[in-house]
Each structure stands twice: as C-alpha cells, then as structure tokens.
Amino acid sequence: MTEIAVPDLALVALVGVSGSGKSTFARTHFRPTQVLSSDAFRAMVADDENDQSASAAAFDALHHVAGLRLRAGRLTVVDATNTQRYARAELVRVAREHDVLPVAIVLDLPEQVCAERTEARSDRHVSRRVLRRQRDELRRGLRGLRREGFRKVYVLSTPEEVDAAVVTYEKQYNDRRELTGPFDIVGDVHGCRAELESLLTGLGWRIDRDADGAAVGASHPAGRTAVFVGDLVDRGPDTPGVLRLVMGMVAAGTALSVCGNHEQKLARKLAGRDVTVRHGLETTLAQFEKLDPVAVQGFHEFCDGLVSHYVLDGGRLVVAHAGLKEEYQGRSSARVRSFCLYGETTGETDEYGLPVRYPWAADYRGDATVVYGHTPVPEPEWLNDTLCVDTGCVFGGSLTALRYPEREIVSVPAERVWYEPVRPLAPPPREDDLLDVADVTGRRRIDTGYGAVTVGAEESAAALEVLSRFAVDPRLLPWLPPTMAPCSTSTVDGYLEYPTEAFEDYRKAGVTRVVCEEKHMGSRAVVLVGRDDDAFPVPGPGALYTRTGRSFFTDGTGEALLRRVRAAAAGLFEELSTRWLLLDAELLPWSAKAGQLIRDEYAPVAAAAGAALPAALSTVDAAVARGLDLGALRDRLAARAASAAAYAEVYQRYSWPTDGLTGLRLAPFAVLASEGASHAGRDHGWQLDRADRLAAADPELIASTRRIVVDTTDPDSVRAGTDWWLALTAAGGEGMVVKPYHGLSTPDGGRQGQPGIKCRGREYLRIIYGPDYTEPATLARLRDRKLGRKRSLAWREHVLGLAALDRLAAGAPLYRVHEVVAAILACESEPVDPRL
Amino acid sequence: MLLTITTTHAPATDLGYLLVKHPDRVHTVTTSVGTAHVFFPAAEEHRCTAALLLEVAPEKLAGLRGGDHFALGRYVNDRPYAATSLLAVALAKAYSSALRGVSKDRPELAATAIPLEIGVPALPGHPLVERLFGPLGWDVTVRPVPLAPESWGDSRYGTVTLRGTHRLADALNHLYVLLPVLDGGKHYWVGPDEVDKLIRAGTGWLATHPDRALITDRYLAHQRAFTRTANRLLDDDPDLLDPDRPAGDQLDAPPADTPDPVVRLGERRRDAVLAALADTGASRVLDLGCGSGVLLGALAADPRYTEVVGADVSASALAAAERRLERLADRQRARITLRQTALTYADARLTGYDAAVLMEVVEHVDESRLPALARAVFGSARPGAVVVTTPNVEYNVRYPALAAGTMRHTDHRFEWTRAEFADWATRVAESYGYTVVFRPVGDEDPEVGAPTQLALFTRVEGVAA
C-alpha cells in the first residue's frame, strides 16, 4: 500500500500519459469539485473535450480557476497529462503565486496497459505514436520533478499500486487552529532570561528548576499556553538559559515558539554555513563556547525546527515573528517564511544602514488578530487588529506579553541595557487615520454579527460622494441612524396609520412589552460629545450630525450645543466612566435644519392654496347664487380649503425662529455607546431614564421624551396606548415610535421584528402624503402601500448600526467602523417610497 | 386652478357665444389630469364673467413631471392650486374655438377687441407678470401672496388681474403661452410639436415681444434645438420690425455681446494648468476632481500624455465626462481612464503617476478635511508633480456682481487669499517632500493679484513622505 500524504492545502498535479487512469484516480480519491480536468475545460471553452486546438484557452481557464480556489484556501487537483515540462511549470507557478505546496502524483504505468485502455474507449482515439511521445516526455521529466518545484512526488508504477494507494491529508505545521488558549504571547526575549522569568512569574506561571536551580520549564495553573514570537536568542546575557527554559516549555506542551530571524541565522551558523557574525550572534556564540556540544546540538535542532508562524484559536489569532499579511496566513512558501522572519521591506535602507520596513500593518484588513515582534517599539499599540509586543528588552526597554483573549498587556522593565541599539527605538506603527477608498467602494458583504448585509457598488458610490463631500470627519462619525418603517396600514376610518397596527405588528412578532415614545418633530441628530476637548483624535467637543452625517451648523452653534450637553451629562460621564458619549436624539425645531426646504417647498403650497381656494369658493358661491348646480363642487372645494389650512398649520407648528442656541431643543432618547461599551443591549427604561436626567440637568435646552409602556397582548393596555397616541397627536404631536422594551439589540441576536415602528399622526401625514390625503378615495388608494422594502431596509441598517457600535466598543480600527457607517449610508441611497 | 374672464362689452352675455358655453349651465371638460368646470358666476347685460376651474385628480398628481427636486415633491406641490401649464391645457380644451378666434354665432365680435378683465388668484412668477403681459397691452395688477408665517415674506404667487381691450382669442393665446412660461416648467414632456403650438399661439405678438427669448426658452423647456427653430420661424413673422434685436434670455443669462469674464478665466486657467503640466515633463497624469472632464479633452488631444486618469467622486460628473469623451477618436479615448474615488481617502490605483492636477478642487473640500486630502494626494498617491489651482479671494472685489463676503460658487467651502494659499502649499510641500512655486492665472491686478492662483509642486527625489 502506498500512502500518499497531501498537505490539506496544496495543488496536486496528476501526471500520466493518456489512458494511465488519472481521471479514475481523481474520482476515487478526491471530491469531484476538487478536480479540475483539462477535458472538462476544453469542453467548456470549445464544446468538445477532445478539441486540441482549444487547449490553450482551456488551460488558461483551468489555471485561473485553480488560482481562485487556492486563493480561497481550497485543495485543488489538476487532471491533465502534465507530461510536458512547461505544463507542469505553469502549475508550479500557480501554486507559488498562492503560496501553497505543489504535489505531483505520477501514474507511470506500462505503455501496454495505457494503450489497451485508450483503444477500448469509443469516444477518443490516441495513436500509439502519441502515447509513446507522452511516455518519453514523462520518463525524461520524472527525476527532475522535485527540482521543478514539486515538494512531494509520488510515483505509482503498476495498476496494483494504483489500486492500493491511499490518500491521506496532513495538516500544515503552521495550522494549530485547534489550540484555543488562553495564551500569553511573549515578545522578543533576546537572551534576557531574568526578565523572562519575572514576566512569567508575574503572569502566574510556575517555573520548574533543575537541581542547579536553572529554569528548565514552566506551567500555568490556569492551563495557559505561552507563545513566543521568536528572537529568543542573541544579544542578551543568557541565550542558553532562555533556550533551556523555552525548550522545556515547548517539550512539555506549555509553550509554542515561532522562528525569529535570529534563530534562523543561528541555526545556519551552527550548521556550518557562512554567515556574518554580528547583530548579537557573537554574544550567543561566546556563551555557547562554554557549553557541552550536546547541549548546543539540542539548541541547533530546536532552532532549526521552528515553524515560521502559527494560526491559532480557530483562525482568529496569528503569531509570526515580524507579522504576517492576510494572504500569507496559513500558507507555506519561501516568501511566506521570509515575510514571517523579516517582514516586508521597501528595498531601501535607512541612515543606519538597516532595511526600511514597509508598514504592512497599516494596510492590514484581515479577520485574524496578528501578534508579532521583530521591531522594537516603546509601547505596544494596536493597529488594525495587529500588535507588536517587542518592547526592546535587550536594549533596556521592557519585556512584554499579551494576554489573549483578554487582550491585556503585561510588561516587566529590563534590568539594564544589555546591548546598545544600532538605531533608536522606532515609534510604534500608528493607526493611519487616512482611510482607504477600497474599504468603502464596490459591492461589499459585511458580517454584522447579526447576519450579513450586502451593499451594492452603486449605492456605495453614492454614499462615498456624501461621505467625502459633505459628512463630518470620519473619526467623529462612528454611527448613523437607521431608517424606520411605519406600522402596517390601518383600516380605521380616516387613518392611514393607527396605534393598534403597531401593537399588532409586535404581538405577531412575539414582542409583548413595548415602549411608545413621543416622536419629536425635528431632525434626527446624533450627538458625539467628549468629556473634554481632547477626548477625540480631532480636537474639540465632538460632533453634532444629521442622519446622513452632515454637520448641522457651520457657525459654531454645534460646538456651543455640545458643550451644553457635556455639562448636562457630567453625571453620565461619571456613571459610565467614559470620556465620551454617543447619543441618539432629535433636534428641534424642524426648521433649524429644514428651514430652506420648508420655505421653498412647503410654505409656497400653502400660499397657493390660500390664494386659490377661497377665490374659487366665492366664484362658485356666486354661480350657486345664480341658481347653477355646483353644490358638490363647492363641498369638495370647501374640504380642500380645510385640508390646506390644516396642512399650513402642521408645517408651521414645527417651525420657529432660532438664534444660536436660543430656541433650539435637543431631545435625546438613547445613549448608544460610551468608551468601551455599546449600550444597544440596555432596555428603553434605562435609556429614557438617562435621557430624563439630561433633561433635568438642562431643561432649557434638553427636552424629555414622553412615553408609555404597553403590553401588546392586553387589550386594556393597547387601548391605553391608543388613547395616549390620540391625545398626543390631537395636541399637535407628530406621532410615536414603538420599540421592544428590552432594547435595541435582541437578546438572542435573532430577528425579532423591527427595532422600532413609527405611527404618525393623522394631521402630520398631510406634509408627507399631501394636504388632501384624507379624502376617502385618496385614502383608500394610499392604503395599498407596500412596506416590505422599507422594513427590510430598516432591518439591514439597524444591524449595521449595531455592528458599528460593537466595533466601536471593541476599539476596532477606524476603517472597520467606517466601512459599516458607509454601508448604512449606502443603504439609504436605495430607492424606496419617500413617504414611508 | 382658477381663471376668470370678464367683459363689460354690451351685451356682456355674448361672452357665452364667444366661448361656446351657455351662461346658465355648468360645463365640464375632462383633461388628462382631472376635470375642468366652466360656469358663469355673473351673466348680466353689462358684465359677464366666465370661470374656468380645474380640479386636479389626486391620483394624477404624482405622475406629473416636475417636483423631483425634493423627495416628497410629487405629493406636496402647488399643482392643484396654482395656475400652471395644467390650466393652460384645460383652457385650450375648454375654449378651443375661441382660442382659434372662431365664432359661429358672433364672428364679428370674435374679430373685435373688447374690454376684458382676466382674474387669476394664484399665478406663479409674479415679478415677471408685468414684464410679460405689460408689453402686450395689458394693465397688470398683482397682489403678492404672502407666505405663512408672514415673516417669511412673499411667495412667488400673485393674485393677478389683467385689464385691457383685446380680441378674446388674443387674450386666450397670451394666457395659453404665458401661464407655463411664468411657472417655469411644464407638467409633460416637451417635444418638437411644442414649437408649432408656440408659433401658432404666438402669432401676431410673440415675434415682437421684448422678452421673446425668455418666453421661447422657458416655453420650450430650455431645449436649445427647439428654441433655435422657434426663433427662426418667428423671424419670418411679418410683424417683426427689428431683425437685429439681441437674442439671448435677458433674465436668465447676461446679454451675449458682453464677453463673459468667467468663461474667459476658465480657458486661461486651463491653459495655465496645461503649461505647468508640460513644464513637469509628465506623460502619465492624474486629473483629480476631473468633474465633467473640462481638462480631460485637452489632455487627450496632446500626444505627450500617454496615460490620463480622470478621477472624481461624483458618479454623475463621471457619466458626463464619459459622454464628453465619446467624441474622441478611439486612440485618444484609449489613453483616458475614468475612476470614481474620493480625495480624502487613500487609493492604491492612483499611485505611481508622473503628475496630478487639482484644478479648482481644494476649495470644494471642507477646510478641516484638507489634511486628509494632502495625505491622500501627496503622501499616498505621491505623483512626481502636483498642479493646484484655487480662487484668489482678494480678487473677488473686482467682480461687481459678487456681493461682498460671498464666494464665487455656492459649494465653495472657503476661498483663500494669496498668503493663505501660499501658507498651506508651503506646509504641504515641506511635510511631504515637495518644492512649490506659485503662478498667477488671469490678468494680475496690482492691488489684489490675479483672479486664480496656481501652485506647482515638484517631488524632491529621495525624500520619504
């Protein structure tokens, strides 16, 4: 039996002449979707799997598909003769391009067997001459396959061997996804044994010592695993001591270590290779001189056997000495190893003669957290979910560990400067607050944690225009309010929207307890306010912005308002121990933002109606006085006049003059987030209570929100809620918003109805549907409105909003928050009935 | 939606004959948007009034053209109340023979000018009413309709009374043409047959009207091909006394004989940018904020530019640029790529070019976002040279039409003095390893400088950003 061991991510080339049984072999050992057959691709591009003239196009397509599969991390088997060297070279190229191992399985069967098999086929004839040529080519190439780049070569020479072959999969060395930690990830030690011991002790590790008191291993009572980012050796005072301790831990399974560039070089030196002895290698060699050669041999083997990087915790954590970009994670190739050891360089050298490093972390967009060392930094600082934990211990800095998943950073200071640095410690890689246009354009699928949301390229493009031309600084724009659907259409006489429908919508969705909040008629406003003017990367009190991310004011009124909110929120800052707050609110009056719209669009309609309808009525009256039969027309005109007057009253009720802060009112109704926390999971009782406190602290500026709690299954409660709404709207209120009492995010993350449903007042709707919408015939027509699209949009924007808050709370990099904000705005550019 | 016609020509009730409507009955006419009622609120020997009242059907309202300039404009609009093209169409239908000047019962009266009084309670565009009806011999009274609340001033509507002695047909034709003109738009698509309608209805008065250009332009929805045809036909009008009268819309655009300094400045600016670009020796260039492609055509025409990328954030601007570039030869077109991007974001597709142009772009970006723009352009895209132009605000005092303190464009977020521009450009050059020189664009005024300022940045090799 031949065991064919294939790495679980590899490009497998089957090699064999026609009739050698490649397709049968592929069918037997691999899934049909893993196999790319040249015949199938010929058929695909030329309708004929035997059309040799289509080979070039067929292989073009095959290589492309192979590349796409490998990029996605899928094992791929190529079923083609591959007897010619150039054909194999192409496959090696594709494998290398995606940093996977190429594997060759050669079916080198006797010519007679192949000839009989091809002759038995009715669909294809391959001449003996062709077979012989293929076989000659195969024979010639057989010995050189490894040189061509195939990392594993298996040759099966008889039908019996083929039948007995078994394919097994091997995990790659770097794949330790099954290890879930918790981990203590330790930065570059560089022979600083004493600091390593005190760091481990401080982290709760128990150090095992031999008879001489030397540390030879360690274990953690809570079962933690240490992960060393490499560069254990060189420069420091006790490389042998560090290696003994780490090797003991690795052997006992309490630690992992990736290879650093210093281990690599040390191993080469110990293997007798010609390397320049500098950068601290001289210290190590001096320390080794005093040791037993057997011990040194042990160190050599250890360093030689170190893997370039580890993928841990189900793929959520990657550790590599110099970091690792996303495309290379879990891959194996010379360039992957080189990246792991040295990082990416620009090809230039700096004034100290050292290579200039390319800041790969600034571009990092991967899902896995990457922890690395290699470049000493004064302080570890997160950048796009990557962290450098090399704090230059050997240069007199400190030795640092990251506790994962806790994400706590623990350091011990160096006892002294053990080695003079060639160049001063680099500043830590900074979060590049310049966003990348690629993060917010094109068709994008965003995993919100509450389901995936896809936004189209065109919508993204529209959103980009708004974001870049009109919105506030992205660093002050962590969230945008989602749209909200109205309740199901009412059949109550004279009404399009009526509370019982809102309650019924929720009852059907299984939501029993709802809160009805007064809907303030102003403009939706998001308030991001800092406790002081240094709370944000942009100096100032924060931002006050509209639902499309625009600043409300350009004259400093916004800043003045924010400072008033800051003062009113003193208690809230304290309670939530935060430097900033993100509030969802309504800014009144409507005319503060929409003044121009009201003057240019709403008021003229009322003016025209006010001039035309009374004149029409008196003209009709005169005709009626002459005995003409115009009674019905007169009634209709009178009804229209009344509607127009009611309409004029509505828009004027929501308009009043303001001057700076004078006349402005802010009605907050939710505390969305504070430093390190999303409050979307808090119930609306908590939310409104906080809002009330703000209103109490500054009643002149801040308005409270009237509310009533309703049990959707209790008819009395529903009646009370309905009466409350009737009274509210009769007094000129816009209407109400009904929300599940338990809060914005559903406890199980599931789809439990809408996050909020609006129910707008009968009079208010005149400025939406037109002054005359209450005419019975019109109303009947309007009842046929479709809410599905709006509801879907509201849901998508809502979960995107929750994701933005979650990411903000988790301290995610700016681009991760911004991409969600851009997606919310993109959803807003989808066409939907503006009256809903 | 109401229009009354009154005459005192005895017997006034002959108005019924002229309109072919019996004064003692109610007449209804169905139009595409609703129902028009014709009735007589007064029908006496000395005074008779015919009222045309159009009831717009609510379900038709949302389907009409116009109103798309705000989201709810199709539902909240003045169509049911104001006298607009809807009323003009109803008038043509209800009074069709009178409009043609035909009367079976009173042919002589139809050909006679009689005293008429036209009442329209809500006529839009009131500052223009006097200008348009006055020259036709109407005595115009306009009572402006105030907005509510009254502190917001007057609306664009007026309650209008026109008094004059005219043939009824002429009066109706004046109204038929001028109602949509005053409203500034039509509720339906304007096609070529509108030219015929205009010429027919304008016979005898439109050719010599001092605001003829404005009337044709607005009536034909600003479609230049139609207005040209209409003007040619009107020039053949025998009543036309002065064929050399200036063409051009006297309200909407400045007269054609004074050269437009803005247009000329635009050309000079483009030439200055092209000269600066040529000085850099660039062959692969970026036009950042290319808009509808004013510069792209010129770049495409010059073979020294082997690759030109036009980038803008506005999809509609890029679509316009695409249309503009359609006229180019294939080979010229092939040198140009259009991309949507935003200049406050890094964009890997824009790296590695010889030069970039930001022509009248920076002033459209909020000042607080300029550091991001500088980083994206000078730090990330990092072309060999950058040409930036922006208005010189000091020069604004030389534009008499520009009120003090206002900017040249409503979207300008700021306009810089020469010192401010120099300060910004110098700081950017220092931070990103460029040198910068400044050039004035347009005639230099000894006191306030040139209208446009240009900065040419050159990357210093070997200096990292």
From TrEMBL, chain A:
The keyword Thylakoid does not apply. It holds the Pfam family AAA_33. GO terms for cellular component: cytoplasm. Residues 182-378 form the Calcineurin-like phosphoesterase domain. InterPro entries: Ap4A_hydrolase, Calcineurin-like_PHP, Metallo-depent_PP-like, MPP_PrpE-like, P-loop_NTPase, PNKP_bac, PNKP_ligase_dom. Keywords: Kinase, Transferase. Gene3D superfamilies: 3.60.21.10, DNA ligase/mRNA capping enzyme, P-loop containing nucleotide triphosphate hydrolases. It comes from Actinocatenispora rupis. CDD domains: MPP_Prp_like (cd07423). Residues 462-831 form the Polynucleotide kinase-phosphatase ligase domain. This is Polynucleotide kinase-phosphatase.
TrEMBL record, chain B:
It comes from Actinocatenispora rupis. This is Small RNA 2'-O-methyltransferase. Belongs to the methyltransferase superfamily. HEN1 family. Its cofactor is Mg(2+). GO terms for molecular function: metal ion binding; RNA binding; small RNA 2'-O-methyltransferase activity. InterPro entries: 3'-RNA_MeTfrase_Hen1_bac, Hen1, Hen1_N, Hen1_N_sf, Methyltransf_12, SAM-dependent_MTases_sf. Pfam families: Hen1_L, Methyltransf_12. Residues 235-263 are annotated as: Disordered. Residues 286-386 form the Methyltransferase type domain. GO terms for biological process: regulatory ncRNA-mediated gene silencing; RNA methylation. It is an enzyme of class 2 (transferase).
